[in-house]
Design a protein that fits this description.
Blueprint lengths: L5 E7 L2 E4 L4 H15 L14 E4 L2 E8 L2 H24 L7 E7 L17 E5 L4 E8 L4 E8 L15 E6 L4 E4 L4 E10 L8 E6 L2 E3 L6 E5 L2 E6 L8 E9 L2 E12 L13 E6 L6 E6 L11 E8 L6 E2 L9 E4 L7 E10 L2 E2 L9 E2 L3 H6 L10 E5 L5 E5 L10 E8 L6 E2 L9 E4 L7 E10 L2 E2 L9 E2 L11 E8 L4 E6 L11 E8 L6 E2 L9 E4 L7 E10 L2 E5 L6 E2 L12 E6 L6 E6 L9 E10 L6 E2 L9 E4 L7 E10 L2 E5 L6 E2 L10 E4 L6 E6 L9 E5 L2 E2 L7 E6 L2 E6 L8 E7 L6 E6 L1 H15 L5 E9 L5 E7 L7 E6 L2 E3 L5 E4 L4 E6 L8 E9 L2 E9 L2 H7 L5 H4 L7 E10 L5 E8 L6 E6 L2 E3 L11 E6 L8 E9 L2 E9 L2 H17 L4 E5 ...
Parallel strand pairs: 10-17, 79-86
Antiparallel strand pairs: 1-4, 2-3, 5-6, 7-8, 9-11, 11-15, 12-13, 12-16, 14-15, 16-17, 18-19, 19-22, 20-21, 20-23, 23-24, 23-25, 26-27, 27-30, 28-29, 28-31, 31-32, 31-33, 34-35, 35-38, 36-37, 36-39, 39-40, 39-41, 42-43, 43-46, 44-45, 44-47, 47-48, 47-49, 50-51, 51-55, 52-53, 52-56, 54-55, 56-57, ...
Amino acid sequence: MADHRTNCCLLLPAFKIPLTLGAEGHFWWQLWKYFLSEGFCFVFLNNSNEQHCYGVSIMLYTNNITSDFSQDLIYLANKLLKVRTKLDDKYVREEPMIRGPKFLVRLRSHMVFENTPVKIFCTVEGFPMPVRVKQHAVTTNSTISFMLSLFFSPASMLPKIHYTKIHITFLEMFGPVFATEGESATLSATMTLEPNLANLQPEAQWYRDDTRLFDSKWVKIETGRGFSKLTLPNLYKDDEGLYTLRMVTKGGTAEHSAFVSVADGPPPVPAAPGAPMDIKIHDANRDYVIVSWKPPNTTTEGPILGYFVDKCEVGTENWTQCNDHPIKICKYPVSGLFEGHSFYFRVRAVNSHGISKPSRMSDPITAMDPTEFERLHGVPSAPGQVIATRETDTSVLIQWAPPKEPNNLIGYYIDQCVQGSKNWTSANHKPHKNTKFVVSGLTTGETYMFRVQAINELGLSDESQESAPLTVKAALTTPSAPYNIALLYCDGHSMILNWKKPLRSGGAKIKEYYVDKRRRGTTMWREVHIPPITERVYKVENLTEGAVYQFQVYGANLAGLGPASKHSEDLTCDAWTMPEPGPAYDLTFCEVRDNSLVVEWQKPVYTGSEPITGYHVEYAKKGTANWITANEKAASHRFLKVTGLEVGTTYVFRVRAVNAAGVGMASMASDPVTAKAVAGSQEVSCVVDEKSGDIVLSFESCQINEGSKFIWKKDYKEITDFSKGVVIKSEGIHSKLIFKNPDKEDFGTYSVSVTNTEGVSSSYTISNEELVKMLALSYDIRHPVIPLKSELAYKILERGRMRFWLQAEEISSNVTYKFFANNKELSGPNKMAHDVATGIIEFIMDHFTEENEGTYTCQITDGGGKAQSSLVLIGNVFCKSLCPFSRLPLMFPFTTGPHFSEFLSLQIGDDCSVTLVCKVANLKKESVFHWFREDTEIIPDVKPDLGSGVCKLPIKEFSLKTAGIYKATISDDRGKDMSQINISGKVFDDAINKLSQLAGASAAELVINCTATGIQLQFDASAVMWLIIFLLIDSQVVEPVEKDKGKYSIVITDPENSHKRTLDLSGDGQYFQYFSSLISFPPESIPVVGGLPDVVTIMEKKTLSLTCTVCGDPKPQVSWLKNGSEVEPDDQYVVSLDQGKFASLTIKGVSMEDSGRYTMIVQNKYGGESVDIVVSVYRHGEKIPEAKPTLTPKTIIPPKLPIEIPQPKTQPAPSAAPSTPSPAAPKAALGRGVKSPTPSRRK
């Protein structure tokens, strides 16, 4: 047939191809290559949003088609239809509901020239697939035209362009901002995008009062996937306004707005005006420019008198004033500029109070001729969005949008930066003219970001926004074919198959396998399973017994389906009944060295008639059939180290299982392996960590790649149980297997292998003997003993002191220690010390006496180390150590510094005084003496008498409150000495007993003292001790009766004697007559008061009522005082006495002036009493003041004898300040009044 060529357009049918292409998919790629070789050009459109690529059409153009090619076209068209049908049947998962056809993204019209490629895009939805194919062929004498057409509904032919709609929903939106000049403000928003496509992100546009904002010194904009943020780092009044974020897509805009208010900052001087705003530059020329501005927004400080204009040359920080006198209008021509130099300008306002802060400085402006300025009208604007995509494992493809203002663009510079650093480097050294660039020389596995700058003859534009971070790795490809399909077992109806994984994974994990079968003699392959399988062992069922089958396997990863494996050999479906085991499988190698390697395998599926007892490993040189058995004795485990290999020689291996019936079938031969160590191979090391005591297996890999992992095994079984304290730590090329809690069961062979390398691996065998030694070493490290240079010893010091000390080889500053005497810890932090430099630890005992005989021990802890040392001072050894103290007085004259010649002691005087006494010696004029109680210094009323050397400290009112540890120190430039005494326990009890003995022996006779609240019986025990007995006649009626007559006694005892004092109130003596005089006045009685508090707190504007109960006959008189002055009743102060019993003072609407001390006085002819109450008023909202009751007693006003109603007198109350007078009766006899019981209030 003649070779006739003509123009032809071939429109192939719509089809869909899974991302995981099968064997039919492989035909597609071969078809594309063939068309290209014939001069065709085509477009293949796909949409990868789901698991399938939906191709709309393939248009083939050529002017080189021959008539001989027509039959091929018809064949190919039919083949395409068949392939499409098979792919649909094989890979498409039918959805449960039928849906009508729908265009998601529509086609649009195109008009192109002949031989010009065109891309046609659309996305359709529906089930079944909404396509209709019409086949049409026309034959003439010399021309054959063939066309397959895809018809859509008429609506798809509309010329209107529909963009993919991106729905934007704001999640977090910025609100109004109220700030002050000089502060910063941030506006941010987060949003969701539907769909969220990495290469189809909306553009974020920020506006202030409808003016577009761009990244600058005053505005920082950051936008990412799903968020946008605007930062104003230094606010001026110019920044005030309505801010709007617009997310712009081709299908629409979403926006959000909020107002930013900027208040004036503090002026430089009070009442100075605010800063001018909106400074602009006009009419730039060779030597002058015109500056204009707006006045401050507020003038409440006073009228503006004028403005000063300042300039600063770019590159300096020297601001100079342009006008000598303030100008009153908001425009000023600045002259005297240097041509070609660039300047900043700012303005300051002036009023009668001072000068304002400067305005925000202007953008830089260059002084030059206007025509020249127009010719050189600025640098380009910044390029648009930058997108980075993977290409190879060391390069990345960068694409970007051109600048909106190219301004005579020359090209682009591309910068790169490792994520997390700020070290930007240039990827090209001369301008690149296109908007695509391949950045090479990158580090595999590292993550980079990219940006682009445009350049023209004036300079560089601003940088574009940074690209999203991208990790450098090779683009994914489909895996290679699996191989070596083996039969592991057959029962006559099914077969268990195994195969080896593809040698090349395509850059991603192989996730799925597909198995096909066919009978021998047929050509059609059939899938044996619908869902893919993930393991390399599969049971093919529903086979015909006796039939012969062939199998092939595909591997698939994220990139798609790889090629089919070579089909298996003929496998007959006959049941296995032999007694020997079936073949082992999955032979792998590790620890390959020059003369050895380790073989591992999996247990046979078919075990035969008896359990498997071992394995034999055989090997042969590659290309030979001379198999050599590596182990004459069957190995009981599924690994074996084969030795005696020739370096550099390539071998193949196989394994036979053994049971009682004999040796089983041989496994399929392994892949060839060469006996040669990987260059730089390291071995596993085993040590005991010197600090922690852990047993550590360490390995350093000579190779590491992306995705490499360290796999640790024990006896070649991966370690997965970490409950016993086994820890794996891997970082970089190093990995460790750590035994935190090693025990005797941890012996065995430990191996490590590194994935994604050339077989890097190693092992270490821990024998039982070695493990015992390491466990002992681990124990010693975890329980260390601090070595001592010298054991605990003693040294005799002056003044009866003893020093116990020892010396360690080495101690740290964190050392702790304790001293014990006869198993009792010795205390006193000031007595213990240590020296890190020398390792000495010591304890000083102040008084070493006969009572200190016994055993002394020091325990030391430093980190994890411990030590202990003991010293026995018993018998002759103790006497020898104590002997020098008998000569202590002779030793004192040889002491070089001040010291105590007599230590502290407690002395009780005959007058019951208690005094601490000590004696010091070897003093000089500069010597200083101090007293302390519980480490708090005491300043005595009388200074120590250092002239005589005797120092005394009186202890007033000796009681448990004054007990404690007392110290005395004497020091000067020659040294310091200390003495202390613990006044507690036995020492305190002895002192109290001595005081009791003195008090009882010196006690006077009982005397009677009558008061308004009862009768007091008291006696004078000594000059400093009073023991008082209060006798309350009646709890309700304070008047004596007949039954209260009798004898009253008090007994004072001490450890040796007892002392008794008696008062007779039952006969006709003097005391009885006085007692009877009190009984002769019924029903009259002395007035008493009850029920008032000591302190009252109340909030202002409230009403305060002070109420109490009084009693007495005749009825008592009641009066009230405030701060010593009598309270005059009025509308605010109301004084009342109800029923002669209930007295009250009511203050209405209390105020702060009502705070103070209030005194209530009640009295009749028999006497009376007064009580003080403190009133504290606080304001609303204040914290309630803490009520602190004072210990102010009632003041008793006794009657005079003969009894008469006393006249009121004014004198200070016992608890009031001297300046605050309080009324009181004439001074009573010595004694303190006792508060009477409060009667219950009657209603």
